[in-house]
User: Fold this.
Amino acid sequence: MNHSYLTDPNTSSLSLSGLGKRFGSAVAVENLTLDVANGEFVTLLGPSGCGKTTTIRMVAGYVAPTTGRVLLRSRDVTIMPPQRRGMGMVFQDYALFPHLSVRDNVAFGLRMRGVSKRTRRGVAEEKLELVGLREAADKLPAELSGGMRQRVALARALAIDPAVLLLDEPFSALDAKLRSSLRGEVKRIQQVTGVTTLLVTHDQQEALSLSDRVVVMRDGGVEQVGTPREIYERPSSLFALDFVGRSTRFSGTVVRREGANQLVCDVGGATVHACDPGSVQPGERVTLAIRPESVAVSVAGDREGQANVFTGVLAAREYGGGVEHVTVDVAELGASVLCEVAARGECRPSDGSVGDPVGVCFRREDVIVVADGGAVSSDGDGVAPGLPAATVA
Amino acid sequence: MSAAASAPAASEERPGTAPAAPPSRIRRRTANLSVADIGLWGIAGIAVIFLLLPIFFALISAFGVNRFPTFPPDGLTLKWFTTIDSSYVAAAKTSLTLGLVTAAISTLLGVPAGIALARWHGRGAAFVSALVRSPMQLPYIVIGVASLQFYILVARELDITLLGTIGGIALVHAVIATPYMVGAVAPAATGLSRDLELAAYGLGASRIRTFFTVTLPALRSAIFAGAVFSFLISFDDIPVTLFLVGSERQTLPVKLFFGAEFSFTPQLFAVAATVTVITSVVLLALTRVLGLKRISGV
Assistant:
């Protein structure tokens, strides 16, 4: 973690150190260390079973950790009951109290704190205003749509002025369109209130669009921590590469370094140029990957002589509205390269049809380099030596 | 019962129309559904008539002028209502008290038991669940005789009189009513998301406060249904009560039972009619007040 400004203990709002949880002999979370700065939006991203939900429940106080500590504004709250932590949690199923009106749901936390009726009414109105549901104050949760319930749950969590806002898969029960509009809403509210936020999700889009930092989790441990851009553009492992976004992968060997950060790699006889500020050395085995949107499709032979230009055969076109996915079989690389091009506008691809020879090219800066040593995925999706594989994650 | 009987009829008709093209299939399906609907309503109607006809005859007989129930009556009168013996009013009061005490005991025992059974998945849960529900499987006569013997024993050994007292009878009524309360609460508690309570904890509510402000209100319609059941089981009971009442304190059903046995008069029908109307009105009102109107929090 090279974000010293985000991990400074003086400004950190929430610190997890060496946090672990075992259920019997099963390890749910192991040795998780993370600092969340004041006002920061951090996302735990990973597939189901990676330990992200157990982690957020340990932060909330619903699950007692087996090892490690939870610090809230430098105070050890590891064994503090949830009642006294002052966390605002939004549950996957929202967990709104079915017998209470929207207003009473939002005011519940203040009622438990003995705040006067007048004051809590005012706060409830204010939070409902914030989420745009003021007119629904007198309704029961059952009378609301899924999106509205989610916003009530958010208002209820914010009403207690939480130390940390915890969001446990808050968008998963909603349909795609609503999900993206509520995502924007949550981001806006988080920025307005400046509340430190921890989100748990398996949806990479959510993680990338909302977070200041993303923690990619796998099998109870942290795989990579970084800004959304770092996670997407410089994944540090094959798992992170596969889990976030789509890519075409090639397995190769580093031939030599050129200058400070340029690499020349051999992929089954073909030469691929890449950039890597890291430490891979000539002779090392690496996995190279290219994102679909980084690949340009052109007429074959168009850009002869440039780096990373290859000739292939157009294998498939898939129209997707705004974008079109084009698959090009490149014999040289022994792979089917997935390309994403704008379906309309100036940069429209040539109207080739399946079977036509086409060229693909990509900038060396866009090639993702993952060193194979120690970082090879063990889930059976590792790349066999000399057999470049195309991966669509 | 009626709904289940008509459902297969509706599904049997569908395969025949299946090969048709999509648009016409939609039309045919709607047609099938309306045929099924008519069948369903028909059977429901027959069931209602089947269930309510005896009550209807009792009501008619209460207003008939004939000394012995005749149908149709030769004329209508209110005289049987005005000549109801005051002992029936006393018996009704006893039954009402018993019903309320029984409902209270079964709520106090059945609600925690129902919630516990819904959440306990460990070893022995199925056994305890069966044990809690076991009074439903015993004939009421057996429970009545057993209680009588137990109360005689208690009176002899401990010098405590339970036989013929409101408390003693209500305790036995609660034995047969509590399984119904458990049966109403356990499924509702199973369906309740645990996150509801976690959310309350997170918002600062203690466990006890959460139980009273979140868990119980969320289960209130099941608890209400269980309490009404408990009340009615006690209010209706003859076989158990028969063994436990004394000659000076009788419940309404037991008094009606003996009345029908020894002095069959239209006053019995008048009493039955009055009780039927009052319970129906009270039940409807309670459903309105407790079932539909929400309990306000803030």
Summary: Confidence is low (pLDDT under 50) at residues 1-9, 374-393 of chain A. Chain A has two domains: 4-233, 246-371. The first helix of chain A runs from residue 4 to 7.
